[in-house]
Amino acid sequence: MYSFRNSSLTKEQLNNLGVTSKDSNATQFTRPLFPILASKPSEIEKNVGLDYKMVWKEDFRSRLFEIHSNPTNQNSDSYSFKIANALEKEHKQKLQLKFAYSQMPAELNIQNLRKRVNKSKSAIPNKKRKMLKMEDVTKELEILEKKENLHDDEGSEKAADGSDDEGEIEGDVEDPELDDETDYHNNYFDNGENYFADEDDALDDGPVY
Amino acid sequence: MSIAAMKLCSSILQEHFGETVRIVGQDLFCAKSKTLGGICTSTKLSKKQVAASLAILVQYRLVRFNPIESNENIAEYTLLYDRILLFLRYPRYMYFIQKKYGNPSALLLEDLLKSGMAIAQSIIVRAYAASDVKNTETLKELRDSLLDLIGQKFFVRCPEVTGDVVPKLKVEIPNLFLPPDINLKDVNDMIEKGTDPMDVVQEKIFWTANFDQFHQAFRDKVLVDCIERQIDSNAAECFQFILSLMYNKTDVWAVKSNPISLNEIKQIVKKKSSNAELVKYLDQYVSIIEKDECGFLKKNDDIGGEAYDVNMKEAFKQIAWSIIENVITQKFGTKAARIFRVVRTKKYIEQDEIQREAMIPSKEARLYTYKLLEENYVQIQTIKKAGSGMGPTKNFYLFYVNQQQIARDLIEACYKSLYNLKIRVNLDKDANKRLMEKAIRLQFIVEALKERGESEETIQDINETLTPPEKEIVENAKMRLNRLESSEIMVDEMMLMLSLYLQYYSPAARSFYTGKIFLDYTEDIAYETDNTKKHSRSTKSILKRFQNSTSSNDSQTI
């Protein structure tokens, strides 16, 4: 009865096969990357078929490379590309291969991608416009806040003065030059009255880093 | 799949489609399948770049796509590396068609190979633009050649697709080779107006090259050439008829044909052959082929009368043996080849017996045996006597040959050598780029001057701008490049034969080594079913209508 099994060769097995220690030392040499062949390889027979194949292969390879070598630029519409590679693009367009996009997943159609990109591009200015509006709004809000502060200060001064100054109030109302809406001079130059008012608010909110 | 194959595939992608496609291809090679987003993440390329590269790969059918399990709207892509390797064989397909069917067919195939897949009208329009003569006759000839190629199954329909985000492919076997309806008037209008057929044609049927059919033709040629070398040209012609009879009865890729009676062979030879010698000595020729050690033809004793089987499996086994022996002879010399033959014939043999049988001195025999063992051309089997203890002296060490393993190793070696060849070609091209470009420019200038009728002195002056040492360098570089390019073609031929052998011995290897078309969609598609047989008859009748006006396509040499 024999049992079959594959096994890697141990030193004992090699000895048993007739490989002596001298032989095993001899095989320790590193083998050259391109070992010299025992005989010179036979020359390839030149014929018409082989020549045809070589010429066609080179032509096919260069043609395909010419068409596809830079797939990203195929539909590029950047200004620099148009200017710098106008002639090349014209040449490429002549060679351009129409892809069978109907046979592919929709995500591979670059034209679809471009549409999406355009949409997103058109969305960016809207966002910017919104941002600008928000800035305007905050500016307006600040102005309004200042005005309110001015009103509050004036109101508190008036409350402190009492009802004796009613005539003055009436006078203020009657005088169109002292009206808040028309007194640009008064609004333009800050008299420094509310200098500490903002600081108090800032302290309430905590330090700003 | 090995690193050598990956490097070779990357190199092929690089030289045909550029760097971006190579990066995407290599990334897909490392993974089983990936989504578009996944490739973008791993390659750090933009979505646009990856989408463009994948579109190229799908267009050339180098990548397969499927919807992912969790979401039907997202596709995952798998690289078909066996199809990339077929790029090496494209010149052979071209030469075969050029020689067998003539120039119009070659133009059509060339266009189809360049575009990956295309509609029939586009193929005709572009082939017409590439042809030298432009008239209605040429157009008609192109249309007929296209229908002929479809009838011969060299062109195959791409599967229809559903309109989903990730299209699903619907393969209908009977329609694969159904000829399209091409209106020459419409095609002519497209050419005159310069419109692209892809924009005009409503019902788009895409066509692609059926590489399986090419491989079948190459396989037959290998067998016929073998018979010619072994016996003579008459025997080769006889075997060609036997193969054509085989296709009527059996699947083209079957391991063994159904029995073919001698009467059938006689009838077909009488009907189709003009070779009087073959007709006269047919019985003898069949008998010689049957008795030949190649074993291509075997006598079938199961049925009454004289009948024969074509044994493809045995045929390619013998071819593979001869390739392996040739490689061993080239690599290690005749003594090693002799040892290999001894091990092969004895199946399991001990070391002492090898040197006796091969009649080689002990030390030399051991040296060659272990060289073969080291390179995996022979394997070692330990046989242990049951109950004989643990000592190594109680074991027998037998050498044997595993043909399939050697064939696989040789294919790997082919990948490596092809990659090395490509590296060397690029290196040589880069090193001599300036001088070679200069030589080409000079050649153009000289041709232009000759056309203009300039004096010999002027032409000689121009020619002398390339100095004699420079000329020598250019000549040497060209010679070396030619040798490297032709080696590439020869290595691929060897690879095809080994892969055909492997496909008969391990059917799983079939798809991989020969790039079987549409295997991803249906397993049995290339096998001719009853439906396709019926269909091929209908195709033939349709083709006959067109063939009335077709000029004879004599085999044409270049």
Automatic annotation (TrEMBL), chain A:
InterPro entries, alphabetized: RNA_pol_III_Rpc31
Superkingdom field: Eukaryota
Keyword entries, A-Z: Nucleus
GO biological process, one term: transcription by RNA polymerase III
Coiled coil: none
One annotated Gene Ontology cellular component of this protein: RNA polymerase III complex
Annotated region described as Disordered, given as residue ranges: 145-209
Main localization category: nucleus
Sequence ranges of Basic and acidic residues compositional bias: 145-161
Location in the cell: Nucleus
Keyword Acetylation (UniProt): no
Biased composition (Acidic residues): 162-182, 196-209
PANTHER family membership: DNA-DIRECTED RNA POLYMERASE III, DNA-DIRECTED RNA POLYMERASE III SUBUNIT
Family, similarity comment: Belongs to the eukaryotic RPC7 RNA polymerase subunit family.
Protein name per its UniProtKB record: DNA-directed RNA polymerase III subunit
UniProtKB/TrEMBL annotation, chain B:
An example Gene Ontology biological process: DNA-templated transcription
A Pfam short name: WHD_POLR3C
A single GO cellular-component term on record: RNA polymerase III complex
Gene3D superfamilies found in the cross-reference section: 6.10.140.1450, Winged helix-like DNA-binding domain superfamily/Winged helix DNA-binding domain (1.10.10.10)
Subcellular location as annotated: Nucleus
The keyword Transcription belongs to this UniProt entry's keyword annotation: yes
Predominant location category: nucleus
Domain RNA polymerase III subunit RPC82-related helix-turn-helix: 7-65
Taxonomy, superkingdom: Eukaryota
Domain DNA-directed RNA polymerase III subunit RPC3 winged-helix: 324-401
Residues in RNA polymerase III Rpc82 C -terminal domain copies: 166-318
GO terms, molecular function: single-stranded DNA binding
Alphabetically ordered keywords of this record: DNA-directed RNA polymerase, Nucleus, Transcription
Quaternary structure note: Component of the RNA polymerase III (Pol III) complex consisting of 17 subunits.
Family: Belongs to the eukaryotic RPC3/POLR3C RNA polymerase subunit family.
Function, in words: DNA-dependent RNA polymerase catalyzes the transcription of DNA into RNA using the four ribonucleoside triphosphates as substrates. Specific core component of RNA polymerase III which synthesizes small RNAs, such as 5S rRNA and tRNAs.
Protein name as annotated: DNA-directed RNA polymerase III subunit RPC3
